[in-house]
Amino acid sequence: MSDKKLGEYIIECEDVNKWFGEFHVLKDVNLRVREREVVVVIGPSGSGKSTLIRCINRLEEHQEGRIVVDGIELSNDLRNISAIRRETGMVFQQFNLFPHLTVMQNITLAQRFVRRRPRREAEEKALQLLKRVGIPEQAQKYPGQLSGGQQQRVAIARALAMDPKIMLFDEPTSALDPEMIKEVLDVMKELAITGMTMLVVTHEMNFAREVADRVIFMDAGRIVEIGTPEHFFTDPQHDRTKLFLSQIL
Amino acid sequence: MEPEVFVTTADLGAKRPPPNQRTGIRELLLHPMLLRAAAVLYFLLVFTLWPTIREQIFYPINLLSDSSSNWATGLGLGLMAALPFALIVFLNGIRDQQRLTIPFYRNIIFIRDIIQVVFLIVILGTAYSLIQNLNDNFREGASGLVINFNVLERDYPVAITEGPDFEKELSWVQDVPIAQETFETYLRPGTYTRALMSGLSNTLRAVSIALVLATIFGVFIGIGLLSGNWLVRTVSSIYVEIFRNTPLLVQLFFVYSSLRLVLPTQPRDAHQIPTPLGKMYISARGINYPAILTTDSFPVMGVLATIGLIGGIYWWRKRLQLQDETGKPANTLTYFSIAFLGMSLLGLALATVFGGFPFELEAPVLGRFNFERNIGGLYTSEFIGLVVALVLYTAAFIADIVRAGIQSVPKGQIEAARAAGLSGGQTLRMIVLPQAMRLIIPPLTNQYLNLSKNSSLAISIGFYDLFNVGTIASNQSGQVVVFFVVMMLTYLAMSLIISFVMNFVNRGLRLKSR
Amino acid sequence: MSEIKRDELFYIAPKEAPPSRRPPRGTVGVVGWLRKNLFHGPVNSVMTIATIVLLSLFLWEVFRWSIQDAQWNVVISNLRLLDVGQFPQEEIWRIELMGMILVFLSGLGVAIWGGTTRAFMLTIVVAVILMVLIPVAAQRIEPAPIRIMVGEDRNFGPMRFVGDDGQEITVAVEAINRTEYGDPDDSTFWGLFENAGGEQNTRIKWSEIRAAIAGETLDPTAYNLLIRVQLLNAQGAVVAEGISTSQDPNITLNVTLPADGWYILQAEVLTEASIYKNTDGLQLPTIPVRTLPNEGYAFIRLNNVDIYRTRPSDIEEREAQYGTLPAVDCWSRDVVGCQVAERAVRFEGSRTFGQFLKLQLGPFSEEITVPIVSAVLLFFFAYGLGHGAVTSRNPVFSKGIARLTTLGWLLLIPLTWFILTGIEGAEDIHPLLKLTKLSPEQWQGLTLTLILTFISVVASLPLGVLLALGRRSGLPVIGTFSVLFIELVRGAPLITILFFAKNIVPFFFSAGAAQDLGNVMRMLIGLTLFSAAYQAEIVRGGLQIIPKGQTEASQALGLNPYLTNTFIILPQALRAVIPATMSQFVSLFKDTSLVSIVGLFELLGMVELITTGQQQYRPFVREAYLYIGIIYFAIAFVMSAVSRRLEETGSGAARR
Fold first, then answer.
1. Residues B371 and B235 in one domain
2. Model confidence at A212: pLDDT above 70
3. Which fold has domain C439-656?
4. Model confidence at B203: pLDDT above 90
5. Residues B276 and B382 placed together within one structural domain of the fold
6. How confident is the model at residue C340 (pLDDT cuts 50, 70, 90)?
7. Given an 8 Å threshold on Cβ–Cβ distance, is B228 in contact with C496?
8. Mean pLDDT rounded to a whole number for chain C
9. How close C494 comes to chain B (CA, Å)?
């Protein structure tokens, strides 16, 4: 996507290092994402891609380096963490919808208790978002009654209901049956068109080619190569990148 | 704006150890184990020196005084004890504030730690004030007693009519070298301690017998629950439902009163049952049976039998190894039996030749009104009642556990085994049971623990188990707290031992199934 | 069968499939079932036969025992005690009121919350109905009359009992001078007075007499006794008196007691020398001196004398209320007397199983139907109300009813406490406010069992949740303490914890508070702590099932830990452990029987009280145990069956 006007730097990771015990899982990660940019992160499993985006909303804690989101530094400061979590929405591989609440309640819960919106307003917004992701009729159903693709779309709507500036996607389609992947990707594409800043970890290469502004390849905790989709898929530079792409394309 | 293109030049394989990994004295000191030990030591110091600390530090600055309530004093103690931790927490907080500009009240780590510090202070303070209240109330109250563990060396006034005689000398105590004096004070005949030990021995007797019988009976009924025969299944199921849904205490009372009502009350009217070893008398007092006692020549046989046991186990494992290596059938049981029984017989023979037969019979002697005390074996009706009730009750639970465990083994396993040619018995032994065991052992352990704890109900029928003796002791001496603590610790120890043994069995069974 | 020739490689099925055949005769139907299940082979068949034989023998023995040997009086006469203990008769309406409130709230609850709560509520309703109808029915049974045997060789000495102002009692003499005395097993014989042990035992005597009458060795019409019955008050003044002669043997004195206090009953078989009537201090013979010898036996029947309290300490209590025990003169050796009524009264009857059943179903049935029907109607009314609220369009109505239900359940325990303990000086506040002060110590019997269970379970739930959360909190200090508490409590037998709660806990507080903390409160504390530890483990299991992703999603949305737990984690965890919690409920219900050891008189304790206090019931404890065993079983079985059903159908949140 080339005609977009990108904004200022909204995510900045500077020399970020993380260890799980003795295991060095993120090594000297330097990354800057602009507003309205769509960045796709690819790489073999265990390369630290999920860990990286989970560090951004403090689901994981980094030991070294700085992470700044929308001008707020990620530290042990409660206020900062809450603020950053309000700015970022996350979509998980396993959807993680709340099974004991209806779709409507899933989407309105955080709105009412974190953003303190009155119930009516929250429900209107929820309905709006459900229309946007294409399933307004499922509002009163329970997650268990929906298909995987529908659940993930509800998850996206739930994250969007908080009006985040950034959307983080952790392998959103990896747990879906093939025929449902498209519906979720379509929603994500539409999101990108409307100008949402997105950081997406995925294996869907077509999505990367069509939608991404930049593609990042990570391996063994390190960012190996960053480039435009054209650059990436036609002319990768690093040997590792070449090896990886040869295995999956 | 151009999107960045970036290619890394770093060595992809390189990695660093996490920060703060340097080793040195400082790191050694910060080793968690040492830290915890230091913390515990500090606590102990504060607790033991509390009166001094209180006077030297708190009184002068008027924070506390002699007349402060226990609650306030407790808080002071808590503050004192939590002081170093609080200091560390605050220091960390200050450092974070300086370096990272995170104010205290928003710092996650600070919040987490300060909650724990406050919790610690409150808990310690509450505990202290409660215990002090206890002490004060006892002192001022009816008993006027101070909580004093010395009661354990005083004489116990009530007779315990069952189990080891706590008035008897413990001859082997004399030979214990080091702590002899302590033993002398506490373990001389007639002390509270001896009485408690008597009670404990009664509990252990009842629990061990009940455990074995309950397991056997429970397994039996569990198999019945799985039977193909509808009648057997239904009857077992009814048994399980009835005995699981009625309180143990009611069952106990019923069994005990049945025994007392149905059996002849007077010993002279007792039912006499001839056995090869002599006459057995069954009356409402209990079962008097000819006891098999060991004589002086028994140790010889005992030692040889133990050698046989060890040798048998060793041989057992050797045979299993042999089977692994050469495929020859292990016949472990045969070899074990040869070793154990053989050595035992040898011991028996040697003992007889050199010192007389290692066992002797002591038949109960019926006096005018009752059997002579301590002659012949006696299972009192209290004991029998307790054991029977425990067995009936626990077996119902065990049966269900066994059933669930065996049913949990997927049918496919059995089919595969039979298809591979294993016989019914082999399938059961090597495929079904090991897998079922994995699911059976944990809840079974739970039931064993319950059984050992349920033995305390003996007080309601007058069986002198640990709890009964302890209660009487605390009533007699007024030292409620002392005996409560002793009993709790003992039951806890019993639970721990049972869990430990069962854990061992759990792992051992898995090894054996290989 | 096909007509086409079949060769080895090819086959074409016939156009019309042959009709399917029935399976061989012996494999289906009743015969088939029998063969498969009971007689599947030689071993199986032997087992079946052996089981049938053993079972029949066993059941026959039980049946025979319960009909012939067992004496069910111990249960029948004490039904009220077993149910509500010594709760004052006039306050029983409070228990019934609570029962009805419970039924009402259950009806609402089932309608409004439905689903998983339904089964639980229904169990409550059943338990309440069981509990409510018995006191109502039991209070309508007359206390069984007391019969004392006097006769040619036995007299009856002074019997002292307490009576209240206005109490109506009947003293009668029933001469055993008829050949037809009705069926000896007729229920008009409610009890026989045993006024001595051994061969003097009245029951034995009466059996001998009956046998002698039947064997025609004793002529019942040869009755010649002169009996004087006197009812005196504590000062010795005669309140009522009657003389039974052989011409007019059966006399009845209907007495309304003039005041509260001790009364003395004496019945004397008179010989010539002792005929006198005490008027104004003069001793005058008023009845001609008999010349015929004393012959025969008679019953002195006493109706409506309270025989509940039996312990020596109760005499002190009576003395406190009614004045000092009047001293009496004990006469010659062949007289039984000088005893206080309750201890002298022994109750023994040939209550056979048939009569037991008749009694349960007979006179009860009118009494039973009214409370049951009203309870059921109330339940359905509440259900209808709740259902109407749920489906109604009117938000005020539906919200209002929902709020009322929640409020009702939340306030249930304090309300129960309040109603069952009352207010100090209630009569002074308002005459209509009949909530006189009662102490929890007066709660006894099945009522106490249910109250203990309910309050402990409910109180232990939040405590258990807190402990479980603490254990999993990841904060070492809090986690360690949680673990310590849980393992300490679980490793100790319940009886030691109750012991702790009874003897040590009160002293944790100031001396005054220790006094105020009654036995029931202490046991509640003990049971709650005990149950909380087990509940904590149950909840922990539920918490472990929740996938970590739920917490993560919650955090990613910005929900703080409090919100995460309250709205996301705990609802799922608690729903998942409902079966285990109900199992814990059943367990606690059974464990309440242990408080009888520490001196509370719940159901089992009540049996102990009855059988130790009323010595005549000592040999019949098994009947009592069986009866309460059945009660325990009924409630426990229903609850565990319900929870098992819950487990099977799944109480998962995703299905509704």
1. yes
2. yes
3. MetI-like fold (1.10.3720)
4. yes
5. yes
6. very low
7. no
8. 75
9. 8
Cβ-based contacts of B106 with chain A (< 8 Å): 77-80
Paired tokens of B13 = 């394989």
Q: Would you state the torsion angle of the CA atoms of residues B500, B503, B505, B506, taken in this order, to the nearest 10 degrees?
A: 170
Number of domains in chain B: 2
- Residue-wise pLDDT for B210-248, tens only, equals 999 999 999 999 988 988 788 889 999 999 999 999 999
Closest CB to C478 among B116, B227, B459: B116
Give residue-wise pLDDT tens across range B37-75: 888 888 888 888 887 877 777 777 777 776 677 788 888
Chain A residue with the nearest C-alpha to that of C549: A96
Q: Compute the average pLDDT of residues B335-353.
A: 83
**Which residue in the set C475, C622, C632 is minimally distant from B257, CB to CB?**
C622
Per CB-CB distance under 8 Å, the chain C contacts of B227 are 47
Q: What is the pLDDT of residue C138?
A: 46
Q: Mark which residues 31-90 of B lie under 8 Å from A by CB.
A: none
**Mean pLDDT, rounded, for A174-193:** 93
What pLDDT does residue C332 have?
A: 43
B19/A contact by beta carbon, under 8 A: yes
Same domain for B282 and B207: yes
Flag whether residue B397 sits within 8 Å of chain C, measured between CB atoms. no
Query: Is residue B49 included in any domain, yes or no?
Result: yes
Supply the range of the domain harboring residue B280.
Answer: 195-290+363-509
User: Which residues, listed in sequence order, are joined to residue C238 by a DSSP beta bridge?
Assistant: C232
Beta bridge partners of A40: A200, A215
**Does residue B314 form part of some domain?**
no
Q: Give mean pLDDT, residues B239-258.
A: 94
Looking at the complex, does the CB of residue B119 fall below 8 Å from at least one CB of chain C? yes
| A187-194 own/partner pairs: CB under 8 Å, 24+ apart | A187/A132, A187/A133, A187/A134, A187/A153, A187/A156, A188/A156, A190/A132, A191/A156, A191/A160, A191/A167, A192/A1, A192/A38
Does residue B81 sit in the same domain as residue B203?
Answer: no
Co-location of B367 and B274 in the same domain: yes
Q: How far is CA C329 from the centre of its chain?
A: 40
pTM above 0.95, yes or no: no
Residue ranges of chain A whose CB lies within 8 Å of a chain C CB: 57-59, 82, 85-86, 88-90, 92, 94, 96-100, 109-110, 113-114, 142-145, 155, 158-159, 162
Q: Are the beta carbons of A76 and B108 separated by less than 8 Å? A: yes
CB atoms within 10 A of CB C279: 10
pLDDT, tens digit, 9 for 90 and up, residues A81-113: 999 999 999 999 999 999 999 999 999 999 999
Is B325 among the domain residues? no
- CB-side neighbour CA atoms (13 Å) of B220: 12
Q: What angle do CA C529, C535, C539 make, to 5 degrees?
A: 145
> Nearest chain B Cα to A213, which residue?
B3
Give a yes or no: residue B16 inside a domain: no
- DSSP lists the bridge partners of residue A198 as A38, A167
Measured between CB atoms, does C37 come within 8 Å of chain B? yes
The tens digit of pLDDT for each residue in B140-161 reads 766 666 667 777 777 777 777 7
Do B266 and B392 fall within a single domain? yes
Chain B residues with beta carbon closer than 8 angstroms to that of A60: none
Structure confidence at residue C76 as a pLDDT band (50, 70, 90): low
Token pair recorded at residue C527: 């049971």
Cβ contacts of B112 on chain C, cutoff 8 Å: 475
Q: How many CB atoms lie within 10 A of CB C473?
A: 16
pLDDT of residue A113: 92
Angle between helices C445-471 and C578-591 (to 10 degrees): 130
What residues of B are in contact with residue C48 (Cβ under 8 Å)? 229, 231-232
- Comparing alpha-carbon positions, the chain A residue that sits nearest to B104 is A77
Contact B100 A75 (CB under 8 A): yes
Q: Does B5 touch chain A (CB under 8 A)?
A: yes
CA B120 from centre of chain: 29
- Asked if the model's pLDDT at residue C125 lies above 90, the reply is no
* CA-based nearest distance A238→chain B, Å: 7
